[in-house]
Write a structure and sequence with these properties.
The chain folds into two domains: 174 residues, 3-Layer(aba) Sandwich (Rossmann fold); 212 residues, Rossmann fold (3-Layer(aba) Sandwich). It has 13 helices and 21 strands. α3 packs across α5 and α9 packs across α13. The two termini are 30 Å apart. The relative contact order is 0.09. The chain binds cytidine-5'-monophosphate (C5P).
């Protein structure tokens, strides 16, 4: 087993500090050793107890606290870090970093660490746009600090503009990016990813769907775009944010998804079918809301097109990747599916295993190659699984 990577999460005193609970929780759940360091101001926005519970580690605030585990606290934490993330990063910490001021535990760790540093600034628009802040940001970038752009939107101070903390998803993905330092090895490749569940209408208010959240497909799209690919994401309804740089087409039904995939197929080099497409839809759609009576009701279902199978028939140079979520005879069923759909790679997961399948941030999968090879992967975050799938695709070119 590899030693878990240590992410030092520095929290400074901005209103967005409360959002970092989710980042810490996600990092911890994905197997990172998370060390939270807060400024005194940050503790006014979120309690150290919350972050201690979510990170499963004592939270450090005070430079001279004697309860820490390191002989010299700031040096120990600085050396232990594989990455130092400061989120939210206030104008104050950015200015202190630009000048090399070390007047509390967090700013001291910043000076002492040799780990890559990632900042997620969040503040009032005027403070962000101020020439002093912009100068400081430029200085830090020149020194190799990675700085995320704040998002636009309504700020806590009532102003609408640039300055919101980027989505936690974006910060998390950037952390993985910096830690993995992956090459841009998919430049000039076009990848189509399907994601999420489809919705099959019964009447104007009811539909049939499934538990897929789209997380695996969105992770694949995000990972592929970061490695330089052009990415089309054809997605059923989800609550996820489309990753930056991805061209998304939002659909509801399997037939809509099928039409768009066929339309794009000629332009793509790879199709990854991560969507949980409904196999059946109601045979008759009722324009009127169906009325209840005292009897049972039967809804007759008809087959939806199998998107991958249809593309498999049209396949020329394209690489086709499918998913098989099974609850029994996983590998045997997966192999049959692979043949039927003319796939080059199949990602099989056993839904009965804890940590695999829908909704969670992790997955446990086995990669099945056309030539009979099998690669069983350990529990990984969906973003890490996405990385391995893209490695396998690259190998197939
Ligand atoms: O046959 P099964 O649904 O188990 O196969 C799963 C794989 O096939 C997934 O990659 C899924 O995206 C794809 N699929 C599809 N069209 C369907 C059903 C599944 O492309 N109608």
């Amino acid at each position: 087993m590899n030693k878990p990577k240590t992410v030092v999460v520095g929290i400074t005193g901005g209103i967005a500090a409360y959002k970092i609970a989710e980042l810490v929780s996600r990092l911890y759940k994905n197997g990172f050793n998370v060390q939270v360091v807060m400024t005194k101001h940050a503790t006014r926005f979120i309690t150290p107890l919350t972050l201690r519970t979510l990170s499963n580690n004592p939270v450090l605030v005070d430079m001279f606290d004697e309860s820490g585990t390191h002989r010299v606290q700031h040096i120990g934490v600085a050396e232990e870090a594989d990455i130092l993330v400061i989120a939210p990063a206030t104008a104050n910490i950015i200015a202190k970093m630009a000048c090399g001021i070390a007047d509390d535990l967090l700013s001291t760790i910043v000076l002492a660490t040799r780990a890559p540093v990632l900042l997620a600034p969040s503040m009032n628009t005027n403070m962000y746009d101020h020439p002093a802040t912009q100068d400081n940001i430029r200085k830090l970038k020149d020194r190799g600090v990675t700085i995320l752009e704040p998002a636009e939107g309504e700020l806590a101070c009532g102003v609408t503009g640039r300055g919101r903390l980027p989505e936690i998803e974006t910060i998390y993905d950037k952390i993985i990016d910096v830690l993995e330092d992956r090459p841009r090895d998919l430049v000039n490749k076009t990848i189509l990813v399907t994601a999420g569940a489809t919705q099959e209408d019964i009447d104007p208010v009811r539909f049939i769907t499934n538990h897929s959240t789209g997380k695996m497909g969105y992770a694949l799209a995000a990972a592929a775009v970061r490695r330089g690919a052009r990415v089309f994401l054809v997605s059923g309804p989800t609550y996820l944010t489309v990753p930056d740089g991805v061209e998304s087409r939002q659909v509801r039904s399997a037939r809509e998804m099928n039409d768009i995939c066929h339309e794009l197929f000629g332009q793509v080099d790879v199709v990854i079918g991560a969507a949980a497409v409904a196999d059946y839809r109601p045979l008759d759609y009722s324009d009127e809301k169906l009325k209840k009576n005292d009897n049972d009701m039967v809804i007759k279902l008809t087959r939806n097109p199998d998107i991958l199978e249809g593309l498999g028939k049209r396949k020329q140079h394209q690489i086709l990747v499918g998913f098989a979520a099974e609850t029994s005879d996983v590998i045997q069923n997966a192999r049959q599916k692979m043949q039927k759909k003319n796939l080059d790679l199949l990602v099989a997961n056993d839904l009965t295993v804890e940590g695999a399948g829908f909704a969670g941030d992790t997955n446990i999968v086995t990669l099945l190659f056309k030539d009979g090879r099998e690669e069983k992967l350990p529990l990984m975050s969906k973003l890490e699984v996405a990385g391995v799938i893209l490695d396998a695709v690259l190998e197939l070119f």
